Amino acid sequence: MTLQELIELQKEFDGKHRGNFKWDSKVTDSNIEMLEFLLVSLTGEVGEVANIVKKIVRGDFKLSERKSDIQEELADVFIYLMKLSYQLDIDLEKAYMAKMGKNRERFLNYEKQGTKEAEG
Prior knowledge:
Layout: H1 3-15, H2 33-57, H3 63-87, H4 92-119
Helix pairs in contact: 1-3, 2-3
């Protein structure tokens, strides 16, 4: 499945759920609390991954024992990223490619700078 197909699947799923707001509504100035909710939710999921990793690092578990939990939490992070992208009308693939181009240029310049310093 492509990223766009996954986003469409998520939109369809979100469209079937209701609560205090429409889960699939576009984020605008008139419902900015939706953006806040999505970001708090995303941050919570990242925090759940971090909490698992913290426990692995301090020795409570081995990575192999909790890898499936990390996988599930990362899937939740991915879901909220997809939701943010479609609810804000952001083409995530296009944004990724633009950012990758900037990163390539930045790191190429950094590597060139390091080479010059090493030669000097």
